[in-house]
Amino acid sequence: MLPPRWARRVVLAPLVVALAVLMVPTTLMFAIVVGGVLTWVVPGGLRALRLLWMAAFYVVWDATALLAMFGLWLAAGCGLFTDRPWYRRAHVRLARGMLALFFWQVRWTLRLRIQLDLPSPGTLPDAPVVVLSRHAGPGDSFIIVDRLLGLSGRAPAIVLKDTMQWDPAIDVLLNRLPSAFVTPASRRPTGRPGARETVHRIAAGLTVDDALVLFPEGGNITPRRRAERIEALRRAGHETLARQAEDMTEVMAPHVGGFDAAMEGSPDAAVLVVAHTGLERLVTVRDVWRELPMDKTITMRAWLHPAGAVPTAQDARETWLFDQWRTIDDWVVRQSLSA
User: Fold this and answer.
1) Which residue spans adopt a coiled-coil conformation according to this UniProt entry (predicted)?
2) Which of 84, 203, 289, 338 could staple 266 via S-S, CB 3.0–4.6 A?
């Protein structure tokens, strides 16, 4: 169970900072630094050192973000002026810088390369943006947010599972941006809003400086999830969509609920559909360990749909969403064949 908010702020966050302070001057940290350098010089091995180095880096990275956000909280009069525009802009700039640092380290240690085919900042409309992304592989939400921050400095609004709040930096940062954490229905207290209601609320508050990020598949693709989603479509009487889902081999059938709520909350929003490939085979911890060093290329492609391009009727909107997912599936197949 997720600890209450006060415990995460008073206990968990200070523990991460203390751990980072203790790690920096120790011999262990020195060994990790040496191992990290060797990782860069000697390709193809040193899995344990790579993993240890990334774990240590992440702790220090998390602690640095927490200290920076604590400083911003103090600058805002110990929380009295958190509603000021500069406060949110400062957190967007902080997120941009921290993610740039994170991906610099990922490229260096794990040998990941990211190739982008995304709209340039000048082509984005003067309107809110709803981003629909394929969910495949570890860290794809980090990559999407990093790219959004590079697109005219759009502030990312994300709806995530509440368990992501175990990470103190993510917990504090996203609770200060137009994002939200939702509890699965199986353990959601009575009266607490679900994902659809939360998405609608956030979408209704989007500005031209924001981008709402959704993952309509709801998780990484697995044979069980894929089969369950197809069966759910059939039980709901959507035989045509179920057959489309069976034909899509690289993606799962998307859920329309969150997307529908986003468009109802922000009907003037443009839609950016994002596909990416490179890490989809990394599902379990064993997969990640086996692939270290990853030495992979993540390729991203996006299709921009202007405001008004999405149908307003729910059935037509679901069909439109499935068409976009079929486009993603075709693109991923072509990428696999050309690799």
Assistant:
1) none
2) 203
